[in-house]
Structures are given as C-alpha cells and as structure tokens.
Specification:
The complex is a heterodimer of chains A (290) and B (248). With 290 residues, chain A is mostly helical. Chain A has 11 helices and no strands. In chain B, α6 links the parallel β7 and β8. Chain B starts with 9 loop residues before the first strand and ends with a helix. Classes of the chains: A mainly alpha (290), B alpha/beta (248).
C-alpha cells in the first residue's frame, strides 16, 4: 500500500487533492457542515435565532464556573496527589480517603451533596461558633466577628459558589490521581540525586520532580478540563443559570424542543472542539520539545 | 562541625541493612580518613552500592552507626540535608535533571540549598564545567550530551556544593568504553587534589592508579581490606584471589 501511494503522489494530478480523499478528515468536515447548517438556521430561522439569543447568556456562567472550578480542582488535586505519594501516614490516609470516596460517588450526587448538605452543615457550624462566642464575649472586635458569623444566612451562599465547590472537590480527586501518576512516572534516581545534593523532600519535589511531572500530565489535565466543561452542565440541577439550565427554560418558554437542544448541543460542541484543538497543540509541543 | 583532624572523616560501625530476606549489608565497619581514596569492589549483588548509599543515608540502615565529619547520621534527630551538602554523590545512571540545562543542573542546588546568588552560582558552575572539560556545554540539555559528558556534568553538579567527601556509585558502568577514560581522568584529578573519595567500581586500573586502600565486599560483608599495593600483589583471602583472577 505504501509503495502504491508514493507512486500516486509522484504522478501529476488534474485536481491535486482528489487522490487523498480517503485520508481527508471527514469527521471534521461533517462537523463543520453541521455547524454551518446550524449557523445558517440561527441566522435565518426565527425560532433558532430566538433560542440562540436566549442561550448565549448561559455561556458566560458555564465558562466561568468551569475555569474557576478547574483551577481549584488543580490546587486540590496537587495537594491530594502529593498526599498520595507521601510517606507520611496521616497525609497519605487523608488524601487516599478523599480520592476513594469522591471517585465512588457520581458527579451529579456530589454537586447536590455539596450544595444542600455540606454547605448547610458548615453554616450550622459557623452559627454555633458565633453563638457560643457571643455568650462569653459581649464587646470588642471578637464580638462583632462572632455576631456576623451568627447572622450568616443560607441564602448568602450563592448557588453558583456551591456549584463551583462541588465541581472542584469532585474533579480534585481525579486530578490527584493524574498528578500521582505523573510524579510516580519520574524515575527514583531524580529524587535521589536531588536529595544527595542536600535538598529537602519538598525542595526536591518543587524544583526537580514536579516540573517534570507537570509537563508529562499536561495532556490528561487538558482532557479533564474538557470533561469538566461538559460536566458543568450537571450544575443546572441547582437551577444555576448555565447553558443547560437556560436550555430547559427556553424549551419551557417556547416549546421548541428541537431548536433549543440543537443549539445547546451545538454550543457545547463548539467549546469542546476548540479546547481539544488547544490540547492537541499542547500535546504536540510537549512531545517535540522537552 | 568540629572534628579532631586525627579522627576519620567517615566512621562506619557495624552496619546492617536488609531488604526483606536479602541481607545486603552485614556487619560492615569502615573508617575513611581525610584525603583518602577508598576503592570498594566485589561481585554484583554483593552490597557495594547499598553500602555506599547508606553513607549518605539514601538507604536507612537497620543497625549500626555512621559518623560523618563528627555528625552521627544514623541518629534520627540529625539534619541529614545539611550533612548531604558535604557529601557529593555520583550515580551510575548520572541522574541529571532532564528539564534543566547543564548549567542549571549545577546551579539549582547552589541557589536553593546554599542560598548562593544566581551570579555566584553560575560563576561556580562555569568554573566547574571548565574543570570537567565541558565549558561549551553550559546551555545544552542532558539528552543532547553523551553518557561520558553527562557523567562529567553530574560530577560538576556534586562538586558545586563544595563537598568534603565524594561518593561514586559505579560511575563508569553505564558508559561506552571510549567514554570511561574521560570520566576517570576527572576522578584522578580529584584524587590528586586530595578529595576524600569512596568509589564503588570495577575499574581496577583506576584503583591501581589512584586508590589508597581497597575493600573487597562480597555477600554484604568485607572479605578483605588492604592497601592497594598489598591487595594487588599479595591478597590474603582465597575469595579475593579468585575474584581478582577472574577480572584482571
């Protein structure tokens, strides 16, 4: 086959690209055509136009929740990942417990749980702290602070924030395993060389192991970022006005099921495709230069 | 770090180390004095590397005591990082940091451990690169260097900490034959300058040229310990004689 292809290539062709038809990225072309079709509808058909204009308001929330949640998940994941490779029993146990528990619960349930169970629990705790402090302290800075604690209302905690916390904790567990795998992929000799130069464990991690490990796990992290963008649709269960929730509202408002969900799916697809192009470029750059 | 000049700079007393059921080091005692070059050899799996790694505590010993420059490193309270800056180590597989250039490999620990300024660290690094014969390789990444060059950069990296002792763990075993020379030459220079060195290796020619004392280690314990001259000319133990006849 390979020889045949080289012969074909060497012959001058009437239309240059026609010989490579089987190699063309047809899937991309089909997606592109579908995209063009939907854009065409959005521009021409009023029902689509209406849905589109209503829905784009949700993009901002979807994107901002994803970015903030993912940043937090990276921090959580890095800490938990370090715990997973730690020889400190307490640190290791806490990190492993976190990872195993979170990974065993569906993301949707985690989001509900953090929004409606964990947040009220924390607020109850804060109220209790505020009340007990007020009983013993009656004036001064501490009393003011305690009073403000006791006065926090459950409504003060925006559902958007609760959604972010749920997503971040949920994804943090997965990122922890990504970081752990990255750290463990670095040969033991690297840590030994760093330690033999007098670096502490944390300096060796910070300056020798992590820079190499993070580079290796950038592609899986990028994929998880895309996954999170998609999973952020789950927060619509909290009636946060993200893209999915606006989809539900638009359908209820107009009864245009077809147009609504076509547009929603199209918008998600646009974002994930753009991101996956980014991840691929990143991957290519990582493999070419060290 | 006060130390009587007559005391050995490394004192190893009855050290044991096992991995599961494998007894890697069994009751080894060894003194190394300032400026001495001690050459450890023996069959593979005889515990040479493990013993060497015990000295700077890359392996924790099961029993026994190791004192380096007056500091008992087997003591749990000791600040091992501080001791390790005085004990340079060169590894069989170089273990250079692949994400850093040769120069950065040498400056990293100077800046992060010894708190030297960037300028000072780079000056030291360039001086050492020149000394190991690689002044033009400062901005090159390790994967663009040959094995022998990598090992010389690794030596420069260890020397940058101004160590009092250098440990060599089979520094030439992973090298092509034509690169062994360049690494041994640097080690010879170091020995001549009076560096205290403990070397695990199979390079008997190097031992003959530079070692003050030789230690034959087999099955985790010292079979024979003697001056280089004596061990080559007149080995006392049958096992030493047998081993030497196989490799010489």
């Amino acid at each position: 086959m390979a020889t045949k292809r080289t012969i074909e290539k060497s012959q001058p062709k009437l239309i240059p690209w026609i010989g490579n038809l089987s190699q063309a990225p047809w899937w991309a072309i089909i997606i592109l055509l579908l995209g063009v079709l939907i854009v065409y509808f959005i521009v021409t058909a009023p029902a689509y136009q209406d849905a589109f204009l209503f829905l784009i308001a949700g993009l901002e929330l979807t994107v901002s929740v994803t970015i903030i949640s993912f940043s937090l998940a990276l921090i959580l994941g890095l800490i938990a990942g370090l715990g997973r490779v730690s020889k400190n029993v307490v640190f290791y146990t806490i990190a492993t417990l976190y990872v195993e528990v979170i990974r065993g619960i569906p993301m949707l349930i985690l989001i509900i749980y953090f929004a409606y169970v964990v947040t009220p629990l924390i607020l109850t705790l804060l109220h209790w702290v505020g009340d007990t402090t007020l009983q013993s302290v009656t004036s001064g800075f501490l009393a003011q602070w305690a009073a403000s604690l006791a006065d926090i209302n459950i409504q003060d905690v925006d559902l958007k924030i609760r959604a972010i916390v749920g997503l971040a904790f949920g994804y943090g567990a997965y990122e922890a395993e990504v970081f752990r795998a990255g750290i463990e992929s670095i040969t033991r000799g690297q840590m030994e060389a760093a330690r033999s130069l007098g670096m502490s464990y944390f300096k060796a991690m910070r300056y020798v192991i992590l820079p190499q490990a993070v580079r290796r796990v950038l592609p899986p992290l990028g994929n998880d970022f895309i996954s999170m963008l998609k999973d952020s649709s789950l927060i619509s269960i909290l009636a946060v006005r993200d893209l999915t929730h606006l989809g539900k509202l638009n359908r209820a408002r107009t009864f245009r099921t077809f147009e609504t969900w076509n547009t929603v799916a199209f918008l998600y697809l646009c974002m994930t495709l753009l991101l996956s192009i980014g991840v691929r470029t990143l991957e290519r750059r990582m493999s070419s230069d060290k | 770090m006060t130390n009587n000049t007559n005391d050995p700079i490394i004192q190893v007393e009855h050290v044991y180390k096992s991995f599961g059921h494998v007894h890697a080091v069994v009751d080894v005692s060894l003194d190394v004095h300032q400026g001495e070059v001690v050459f450890i050899f023996g069959p593979s799996g005889g515990g040479k590397s493990t013993f060497l790694r015990c000295i700077n505590q890359l392996e924790k010993v099961d029993r026994g005591r190791i004192v380096i420059d007056g500091v008992c490193v087997t003591d749990k309270q000791v600040d091992i990082d501080k001791v390790r800056t005085e004990v340079g180590m060169v590894f069989q597989l170089f273990n250079l940091f692949p994400h850093l250039t040769a120069l950065q490999n040498i400056t990293l620990a100077q800046e992060k451990v010894l708190d030297r300024s960037k300028k000072e660290a780079e000056e030291t690094a360039r001086r050492l690169l020149k000394r190991v014969g690689l002044p033009e390789k400062a901005d090159v990444y390790p994967d663009q260097l040959s094995g022998g060059q990598q090992q010389r950069v690794a030596m420069a990296r260890a020397l940058a900490m101004d160590p009092k002792i250098m440990l060599f763990d089979e520094p030439t075993s992973a090298l092509d034959p034509e690169m062994i020379r360049e690494v041994l030459d640097v080690m010879l220079d170091l020995a001549k300058e009076g560096m205290t060195m403990v070397i695990v290796s199979h390079e008997m020619s190097f031992a003959r040229a530079a070692a003050d004392r030789m230690v034959f280690l087999d099955a985790g314990s010292i079979v024979e310990e003697a001056s280089t001259e004596e061990l080559f000319v007149n080995p006392k133990e049958e096992r030493t004689r047998l081993f030497l006849s196989h490799i010489l």
